[in-house]
Amino acid sequence: MFFLGVDWADDKHDLCLLDRNGQTLRTSIISNDWNGFQSLQSIVDHFQPLRINIERPNGLVVDWLRQREQAVYVTHPNILASYRPKRSKDDTADAHLLAQLLWMNNSDVHPLTVSSDLVEELKQHLHAYDQMLKHQRRFGNQLIYILKQYYPAALQLFKAPYSRIGLDFLEAYPNPVVARAISSKELRHFLLDHAYCRMDRFDEILQIVKQPSLDACNFQGYVLQLEDILPHLRLIFRSLGLRIK
To answer: Is the pTM value of this prediction over 0.70?
Structure first.
């Protein structure tokens, strides 16, 4: 039995191979590309049976090893750090530590949990959805900050200023001066065209739009910021809608 520790990184991976007695047979560094994985293939081919310990349960290295039906184990980075003799991280030493923990059959080393392709795909979609929600919150907070500087009335119109109807309204009426010029007929047409379900709020919305307000001395810079952020929020809104469906 042989034991391989793989210290993962973005552009390269440090390897340490131990024999059944825990003695180091070889250490090497492979690049995170086709040539590097060919070098890893030679280790997999020549040292069997082989167990492999790595810090993360996903990524191209793990996928590559899974496709070759290798025995993959995972040690969480925080756990690995707790066994590290020094606080400073050294990739070569970490690769050796990963291999050593595997050789010692340490209880903090766990076999890789393999999910079905469908489950893995759902996990990826869920991660992408969560990331888009984070982006929406970030850009949404920026939008709210911008509107507070020169157009606070827009924040009272709809449930969220970054909803589809909210974004369309801001694109059509990007500042309070333009908004106050809207007619009752024009506003009603806008709401009906967007299938707005709270037409009982029509008079309230018209009052909010028409009410006198303190206008910023110069709001063109804010309007430019608004125009810059709207496409990002539109894209996120469409992507979230597609994924929900």
So the answer is: no
